[in-house]
Amino acid sequence: MSRLTHLNERGEANMVDVTDKAISERSARAESAVHMSAEAFELLVTGSNRKGDALSVARIAGIQAAKKTSELIPLCHPLALTKVDVEFELLPEKHCVHIFSYCRLAGRTGVEMEALTAAAVAALTVYDMCKAVDPAMEIGPTRLVEKSGGKRGHWHCDEVTHG
């Protein structure tokens, strides 16, 4: 039996029916990173970027993206998120911005895709805001770090990367 749950009886991609699943508290954390040149990092940190405060814009973009995940990723359920948070850790020795996202709700399905989308879109926004200085920036890795709730309970990645 396939562990993929987005297949209907005919083996076609389909939105999973979660009607009979119990409502529970669910949360997820994801991370991403943007690696850039020393010049781009300095402009970002000092707020001298000509496009403005890249981290504030990236935080809002990540939050908005989490709320619109079902419009971006096929077969994702539209969710009424009760919490979305996007935070940044600046790593000057690596010229890297490490991005952390957190999503929470009480519902019938998890929020892993929303947390991943928030982290990825925040990273893309940092790239967009800084690309004039460094178009060769690298994004990633982007990954799920932790999830809780639902039938499978709590899961945590063994180690967190830092850029």
TrEMBL record:
- Give the matching CDD domains: MoaC_PE
Q: Which InterPro entries match?
A: MoaC, MoaC_bact/euk, MoaC_sf, MoCo_biosynth_MoaA/MoaC, Mopterin_CF_biosynth-C_dom
Q: Where is the Molybdopterin cofactor biosynthesis C (MoaC) domain?
A: 15-150
Q: Name one GO molecular function term.
A: cyclic pyranopterin monophosphate synthase activity
> Which residues take part in binding substrate?
75-77, 113-114
Family membership: Belongs to the MoaC family.
Q: What is this protein called?
A: Cyclic pyranopterin monophosphate synthase
